[in-house]
Design goal:
201 residues, alpha/beta, 3 domains, 5-stranded mixed beta sheet, 8 helices, 55% helix
């Protein structure tokens, strides 16, 4: 059972010394030099592939691991699916403790609230656009605002291939999503649909 460290700095000019000191005793330690907005950080992907059941990932703070609540939850969920716990020293967060799991639940609730807020704003925008287009049509003008949502098209054979690689542990969920050009929500929905269909065959 290894204590695996993860360090991230945004630019080469920044110093990793503070994070290295905080993660003293961890081995190995993976270090990325890039923005936290990029989910496909090379060392992060290596770390996600490297860890095994019983390991613990240690970070100096949540901001080193992810820049959004959604990304953080998805990374932590992926690690816990592998039987790997997560500790953030700055926030005193540890998924092995009841307090840490409670904090994780609170993060999930906040992320859900954020998503619902965004969706409501989108719905309000669509309603306003439809209303404006209806008024244009009533006045003999062509609609210009609302064109509807263009569905993401994924080749079934490509999905089957990438799904198989993900399930076999050959690539991370994040890498699979990128290859299929799908958001996390759409990816997991399609996984559920695919597994349901496969189970029914």
């Amino acid at each position: 059972m290894a204590r695996v460290g993860y360090i991230r700095i945004s630019t080469a000019e920044q110093n990793t010394a503070r994070q290295e000191t905080a993660l003293e005793g961890c081995s190995p330690v993976f270090c990325d030099v890039c923005s936290g907005k990029d989910r496909n950080r090379p060392e992060l992907q290596k770390m996600l592939t490297y860890v095994r059941t019983g390991d613990t990932v240690i970070v100096e703070s949540f901001s080193r691991l992810a820049r959004s609540t959604t990304d953080l939850l998805e990374i932590v969920a992926f690690l816990r699916q592998k039987g790997v716990e997560v500790v953030s020293l700055k926030e005193n967060f540890d998924t092995t403790t009841p307090a840490g799991r409670l904090m994780l639940t609170m993060f999930a609730a906040l992320a859900e609230f954020e998503r619902e807020t965004i969706l409501e704003r989108q719905r309000e925008g669509i309603r306003a656009a439809k209303k404006e287009d209806a008024e244009r049509i009533a006045n003999g003008l062509a609609p210009v605002k609302y064109r509807g949502r263009v569905p993401v098209r994924v080749d079934p054979e490509q999905f089957k291939k990438e799904y198989g690689a993900w399930k076999a542990g050959k690539q991370t969920a994040t890498a699979t999503m990128k290859k299929l050009n799908l958001s996390a929500t759409t990816f997991y929905r399609r996984v559920k649909e695919y597994e349901k269909k496969k189970g029914g065959n």
